## 1
Amino acid sequence: MESETPRVSFITIVDFSEDARWLFLTESVSDLLGFEPRELIGRSALELVHPDEFSQVKQMHYDTIREDKAAALAYLRLKHKDPFKGYILCAVSRTVVHNVIVGSVSFATPGGKALQNTSTAQEVEVVTPSAKNFELRRWGDPSPMTSNPSIPDLTSPAACPSTDMDCVSDASSSRSRGKKPTIISFNPLPPQSPKIGPHP
């Protein structure tokens, strides 16, 4: 049987701006982070992100909008209002809905609920290094096993000495290796989800 750890969470809506401004928060935000909703509405959600995670979370916000993500889950630290409580490890789920991001923020605890959340999410990103135990493999994930040394790596130039063989020259780009770009630039974001047509 699972421990009786309280499952504190709140529902939130943020806008499509670079700052990810809070538009709505349920009252239970005070249970998790100590703030009243009125203290946060209109402010940037990124203000609460741990400084070490800020650039990655800002890029994640941008990618969520640009890629019209749904059921995306991230583990990151958010600042509690009480400075003695510091930063709280949170599970943040998010989905683009029309022209906002709707999500839930909950206290991240290992166990059955975390396993269920991770297994049903479309994407799981562990931002906080100490939360690696929340990163679980799912059926569609690539194998963590190293490749067989007897099988050549077709993405390397050495594996394709002749010009008549198609080589993947772009496969070693930073994006395909899973690394996030270090410079965050916000190109114009869509005013709403691309899945929604213009209003008549």
Note: Strands lie at 9-14, 22-25, 72-79, 87-97, 100-107, 123-126.
## 2
Amino acid sequence: MSGSHFLLLLLLSFSLAAAAVAQGLSVYDVLQSYDFPIGLLPIGITKYEINPSTGRFSVHLNQICTFSVQGYDLKYHTTITGTVSKDRITNISGIQVKILFWFNIVSVSRSDKELDFSIGILSASFPIDSFLESPQCGCGFDCMKIGEIANSTSNVYSM
């Protein structure tokens, strides 16, 4: 391949990767365009890149994000990468679940109204309805409950 062809191909790749960002789509909008709910990613994504032709993506957080969901401890590292296509995310790096030990979540697939999370040798399915909102670092989907408990506790002591 000549140098000019390579340069043209490189510029085209950067243009495609920037297309989603240039259209003003959030990373959550992009997730939905691949038929996934926004709750697969926590609140607080600072930036993302995606190559629409290959589906390779990179998502960034300012800090490691941890929380619990349905009895599972989850950890999102500052950079999450993988490959997304309709109803399937593979080659995931940067998301872990604790099941006695920390395991990498390597893929997520959608089958009708279920999401299947795989750590390689094991997988677990959850209803999509559980992921309609994005979790918050520290408290996951239970932030409102924690706030309600704090308010009810403070009300008990106020006279």
Note: The first helix runs from residue 3 to 22.
